[in-house]
Amino acid sequence: MRNIDNRKYVIALIFIMIPLIFVVRLFYMQVVDDKWKERAAQISENKVITYPARGIVYDRNGQKLISNEVYYDIRVIPKQMDEDVDSVSLAKLLDISLEEYTKKMNKARDYSYRKSSEVVRQIPPDEFADIGPEMYKYPGFFEVERTLRIYPKPIAAHVLGYMSEVDSSDIKRDAYYKSGDMIGKSGIEKSYEQVLRGEKGVKYYLQDAIGIETDRYEDGAYDTIAQQGKSVTLTIDADLQEYGEELMRNKRGSIVVLEPSSGEVLTMISSPTYDPNLLVGRRLGQNYGELAQDTLLPLLNRSANSTYPPGSTFKTLMALIAMQEGVITEEASFPCTKSLVGCHNHPTARGVSDGVKMSCNPYFYYVTRKIIQQGKNKSHFADAAIGLDIWAEYLHSFGLGEDMKTDFPAMRYGFIPNTDFYDNEFPSKSNPYGKFGWAYSTIYSNSIGQGEVLVSPLEMANIACVMANRGHFYYPHFVKEIEDGDVPSVYTTKRKTKVEPKYFDPVVDGMWRVVHEPGGTARRARVDSLDICGKTGTAENFKMYNGKRHQLIDHSIFIAFAPKDDPKIAVSVYIENSGFGGTWAAPIASLLIEQYLTGEIKDTIKENRILEADLMPIRYQKKK
Amino acid sequence: MRGGNDKIWADVDWVLVGMYFLVVVLGVSNVYSSVYNPEKPGLFNLETEHGKQIMWIGIALFIGVIIMIVDGSLIRKLSFWAYGVLVLLLVLVLFTEPINGAKSWFGIGSFGIQPSEVAKVGVCLALSAHLAENPPPKTPLTPRISISYLMALVTQNWKTVTILAIPSLLVLLQPDAGTFIIFTSFILVLYREGYAGNVLLFLLVAVIIAVITLIVADSSFMLPLLKIKMGGKFGIVLALLFIGLAFYLLIRNFVLKRNRGGLYRALVGSIIVSILFVNFVEWGYGTFLDDHQKERIELLLGKMEDPDGKGYNVNRAKAAIGSGGFAGKGYQKATLANASQKHVPMQSTDFIFCTWSEERGFLGSAFLVIFYCVLLIKIVSVAERQRSRYTRIFAYCVAGIFFYHVMINVGMGIGLAPVIGIPLPLFSYGGSSVLTFSLLLFILIKLDSERKIVLQ
Fold it and tell me: How far is it, in rounded angstroms, from Cα A211 to Cα B139?
């Protein structure tokens, strides 16, 4: 019997052991392991994001370039719907087909009966004016306000850029973004994304088992309010931009206008362009597709993302470098030896000013040869290598082929060839000229802005600034003011070229004579009393197809600044495949300068000729 | 009336009474928090679960006072009558309309009563009365395969088995698997009273083999050397044979020769029984259990994971308990196990432990588990001080039922037991269960208070 009495200890042991195991397990679950706390938060808390309105973008005179407009999304909670809802008239009201309506409703029911789903998105206010008063007839359906971008003037599409939904790389890069958010994809919208986007607000809710919000978490202690994005004032002059786009209608090419005293971009045009309002909201998808397929490439920003051969405008730089290097004086005279390089008929250029005015090709052939072949080495080839690198260094000091830190996404800068390039990469990487395999005679085309050198329209406008300032410039930039922020000092720092101001006088004199004197190449650019200085360029170009080079009509190029003393404006104009620089680019530049400096155009014949010209078709050079 | 009123209360164990009141007060406060509805704020509102709970406690206390007043011998005399009436109710309930697929409820207006709960009291009384009069044979039968042995086994035990089998089968017919499992708690009582000594060890080994069988049931492995693919079941059989071989070697080397014979027989017998048992578990699992019961077991064994589907209840329960942290979220601050969020289902009944643990944290949950542990030990000590066999057996019945409820209810919340819908004693909302556990404790207190008078 005693034996059996001992069984009470076994039972007591069981009664103690099991609760002990439970206590240990509870300690692990509640105190040690955080897994279940995370799981609980995931189950019971819901974070609702409130979206800020995006920052407004102004032009330099306070005109709105980008603003916000309220749009409406229609959403539905299936549980709250009438059972006998008139789907035909509702679909008609929402302007969607009955099939689409049915599809959306099925999707909404599949997702949740008690949580809302989207039916139609981004209804513009004018359309919603018809829908809003009818909404009461359809319980369960309700509208949600959203803001989208609106462009009060249909200009500067390439500068301002567009917005679209974030992609996976954006989400990975920056924790701010969640799937479905909008982000600036190009232009100012992209480069000032961080300023414009504002701060999202967060509201924490408790949710029940079905996902319905029931209560504020901790009475909203952790909630934040959405903060509107900061506004940005651009250096762009909306009126000049608009006038320039008007001039560029039916022409392919680009215009960049800078303020020489500050480097501010007054106008940047790429033509053909498009109405920025096309790439907003639910219109974006289809319109983008159509624009992307256009063979004239309206989405391409030629001003910032294209490079061209500079043509004869480049000659001004050759003269400056040669004088600074001391290999010529301003009186230097060279014969127009057409056997070396082709030229038009003109009197012999006596001095740098003459050379610029008449744009004599052989003259600058000789000038540049003096820079490249300075006789610093006995070997002709080694000498050319030394000379070329000196030459390239000067050009870099003008901002060419340099990262000028312009506040614009995906800027493409030009290309200045150097020794390394000809030794190892040209004509092809597999079969380059090689070290000491080339001399000036191989690369002389660069002297007249053809050959391997490439510049962007923005860089050419900057060259016009350098000429206007006689030797210095500021990095071109778009930002004039940021709300509660500063313009970076990189844009207010004066950059000096390696050429002293005194050497600029004969070149600037030549540029004045280009416009004003008989025998100058850009007489069409003349405007009385404005003292416009300019230089024409004409760039040969080719198009490859079927493996053959087809020569197209030349690009018409002009760089200019005005007035000659105390310059206020610097311009570069590229008109693709339109011919001689003085014919199209020069008058367009002069019209812009006149409009900007005087606010009106006196020579309406000149203006009408430009407005009416259609240079859009791609034309081929007639066989000689 | 013997002794008068003062005598009735003289030997009442007030510690037990105090523990009863502590647990029901904590229980009501916790039910109040778990079902709190701002539109029905009153504590005594009979439309609310806490209001009803208070009403049931009131009814239970009223019955408790009557129990205290009547003579203990009356309870003993009425044991089989109570058993008979409750079995009758278990039969009658099978003719009611099923609620949630089970015929378990007698409804009276908005109140319902579950006879299977209250039947526990009847079974406890009847088992106590029967075993008190029929103690097990003093010299336990040694296992022998003979007709006379089997006959003795039947004649000596058929009444005990019948008392337990009738209500067990009746609740299975409802069906109510939870209550059926609770009835197996009487094994503890039988063990204490001297039945088959190794039954607990045997059960432990059986549970281990069953669990391993279910874990490896549908896996397979490659037999080393022979490269034959074998089912998981054969792996267990092989393992059992290896264990048998190990024991054989132990016996041969360390046991005196004259004792070896019996041990060899026992060894061979238990290996054969084990192998048969493995097959039985596999067959029984596939044959007797519903799909949802299998799912619950597979979830518990970790063979299946489905936190938002089939494992929803357990996943939410664990999240609620685990998120309580050390000190809890505070009273009425639960965000998962409460009435407005409803992440944890049945948070006022089967999963009441979740609300408590989420709001009170580890401090509260450990306190409650230890409280039940102390209560169980208290009941054991009460049982062991009795000279009356009847009272002792009854006390062990009460302890066993409380233990099973706590073990399964808390265990399923923390993922150590399969989900079986049974209440936490005196803590979960539910009239029938409050009434049942109150009656069990009150009868025990009454019987215990007569320990100095009743000698046999």
Answer: 65
Mean pLDDT by 10 residues, chain A (624 residues): 76 93 93 87 79 93 93 86 86 91 90 81 88 88 86 94 92 88 93 93 78 72 85 96 95 96 96 93 88 91 92 95 95 90 88 93 95 92 94 96 92 93 89 90 92 94 96 96 91 95 95 92 89 92 79 92 95 92 93 95 93 84 56
Classify the C-alpha dihedral B184-B406-A18-A21 as positive or negative. Answer: positive
A22 contacts in chain B (CB < 8 Å) = 369, 410-411, 414, 416
Class of domain A238-283+301-612: alpha beta
Which ipTM value was assigned to this complex?
A: 0.88
State how far residue B326 is from chain A, nearest Cα, in angstroms: 5
DSSP string across B225-236: TT--EEEHHHHH
- Domain positions in chain A: 2-33, 47-234, 238-283+301-612
**For A219, left (φ over 0), alpha (ψ -120 to 50), or beta?**
left
Q: How many Cα atoms occupy the beta-carbon half-sphere of A499 within 13 Å?
A: 34
Partners of residue A19 in chain B, C-beta under 8 Å: 369-370, 372-373, 406
For A347, list phi and psi in degrees, rounded to 5: -65, 160
Residue A512: what residue type? W
CA angle at residue A517 from A513 to A522, to 5 degrees?
70
Query: Which positions in chain A touch B138 (Cβ < 8 Å)?
Result: 1
The residue among A15, A16, A18, A20 with the most chain B CBs within 10 A of its CB, best to mutate, is A15
What is the pairing mode between strands A57-58 and A232-234? parallel
Give the CA distances from residue A442 to residues A188, A337, A426, A439, in Å, rounded to whole numbers and listed in that order. 42, 18, 11, 5
Please give the Cα distance from A97 to A262 (Å, whole number).
56
- In contact, A184 and A164? CB cutoff 8 Å: no
Backbone angles phi, psi at A571, to 5 degrees: -135, 145
CATH class (in words) of the domain with range A47-234: alpha beta
CB-based burial, A233-265: b 16+ in 10 Å, e otherwise: bbbbbbbbbbbbbebbeebbbbbbbbbbebbbb
Q: With CA atoms as reference, report the closest residue to B347 among B290, B288, B404, B427.
A: B427
Note the pLDDT tens digit of each residue in B217-250.
Answer: 766 666 666 667 777 777 788 888 888 888 888 8
Return the closest-CA partner of residue A358 out of A188, A536, A197: A536
Biggest alpha carbon–alpha carbon distance for chain A: 140
> In angstroms, how far is CA B199 from the centroid of its own chain?
17
| DSSP-H helix ranges across A262-325 | 284-293, 302-305, 315-325
Cis amide prior to A272 (ω within 30 degrees): yes
Q: Does B312 touch chain A (CB under 8 A)?
A: no
Give the whole-angstrom CA distance, residue B179 versus residue A551.
96
